[in-house]
Amino acid sequence: MEEYAALLANHTWDLVPCPPGTNVVTDKWLFRHKLTSDSSLDRYKARWVLRGFTQRPVVDFDETFNPVVKFATVHAILFLALSRDWVIHQLDVKNAFLHGTLTETVYCS
Q1: Rg of the chain over all Cα atoms, to the nearest angstrom
Q2: By the 8 A CB rule, do 106 and 25 touch?
């Protein structure tokens, strides 16, 4: 429910009529059980995803890019922190994808 509330709060989509001849990207719900360390059920998770393989190049997107951190970069940062006695903190950015900017209009069902 927290994820859905974030989608609504960030105005992630607009409900609009689909123009004729427009490619409509299909969607899918993914459901998952989150478990605790002792394998008991912690909570249920649901995620709504668009099926990117139904997009068409140049119509729905110009390029694809998935920003991920390379292990070598993490290793170098940890080495620097260790060698300089820096304190390390872990951080989880919830709903980080909501802060991306699309230049294309994508219609989905």
Answers
A1: 19
A2: yes
* CA dist., res. 77 & res. 75, Å (int): 6
Residues near 60 by beta carbon (within 8 Å), at least 6 away in sequence: 23, 25, 104, 106
Q: Are 106 and 60 in contact (CB under 8 A)?
A: yes
Q: How far apart are CA 7 and CA 17, in angstroms?
A: 20
Q: Which helix (H) or strand (E) holds 28?
A: strand 27-35
Enter the tokens of residue 60: 């729905």
pTM over 0.70: no
pLDDT tens for 10-45 read: 777 888 898 898 888 888 888 999 899 999 999 888
